[in-house]
């Protein structure tokens, strides 16, 4: 049972009627960040409408491939070999999510990893909305030095015992989410809920056996998200200037391969209030690419128009502190 952490805000007697009736606080550990990476462990804390814990659940998952950065999550091939496949836990996992808002720290990542796993087993996760605790922290104006989970935990006095362990990360997030939810309700703050749409058109294809001696011989796939990105509500303030902050409304384009999947980067940009552009024009504020000399049409046009260029790592740092739009 979670401790009832004291906060500066007491629970309001009049709870906002528009708030959800239940939440599933989720954390997944994965073999990596790319579109063909797999879940290797998952945890869910189910909370009621006011953030009180109902129960929790945890499972290992055999990814049928190399486990990836063991030095981060600590799960070796030997540990995962006897774990259930995702298909074996999909039904129970779904039961934990059904009818609830998925809550996670950087929720778009957890949601996309979960959605892909369900697509692989020709199914859909019963999730229609998600809530990112990073976005909620920004809505509440919490005085955090950054938006890492450890900083959010420290703000609410939550002690983290095993970082990058799905069950402990989910516990920590659940403990930090409850006072955040209470503060939002007391201030009648709109919760930053986003729609979750399932992935469609999954098709398997074989990939070569890994030379590193991992599981190897696995199959991966491709998909297309069934969604249309919403229009940016902010006016374009112009080009990004080196050394300054990004500003909501800026038009950002991406070119070339990225270590983080493109859809995730685009969702992060959209969530920060930026306009994700599919092409380069004189109005483009910034081009994000890890290979500015690649000669792609976007990098060529960026040079022609004098569009500022940054790499993926720099863009990630800029996203952590985006200046609000005027007005």
Automatic annotation (TrEMBL):
Keyword Nuclease: yes
InterPro entries for this protein: BRCT_dom, BRCT_dom_sf, DnaQ, Ribonucl_H, RNaseH-like_sf, RNaseH_sf
CDD domains per UniProt: DEDDh
Any one biological process term the GO annotation gives: DNA replication
Pfam families named in the record: BRCT, RNase_T
Chain intervals for the UniProt region annotation (Disordered): 205-242
GO cellular component terms, semicolon-separated: cytosol
Annotated Exonuclease domain residues: 22-186
UniProt GO MF annotations: 3'-5' exonuclease activity; DNA binding; DNA-directed DNA polymerase activity
Residues in BRCT domain copies: 244-322
Gene3D superfamilies linked: BRCT domain, Ribonuclease H-like superfamily/Ribonuclease H
Keywords attached to this entry: Exonuclease, Hydrolase, Nuclease
Source organism superkingdom: Bacteria
Name of the protein in its database record: DNA polymerase III subunit epsilon
Source organism of the structure: Streptomyces lucensis JCM 4490
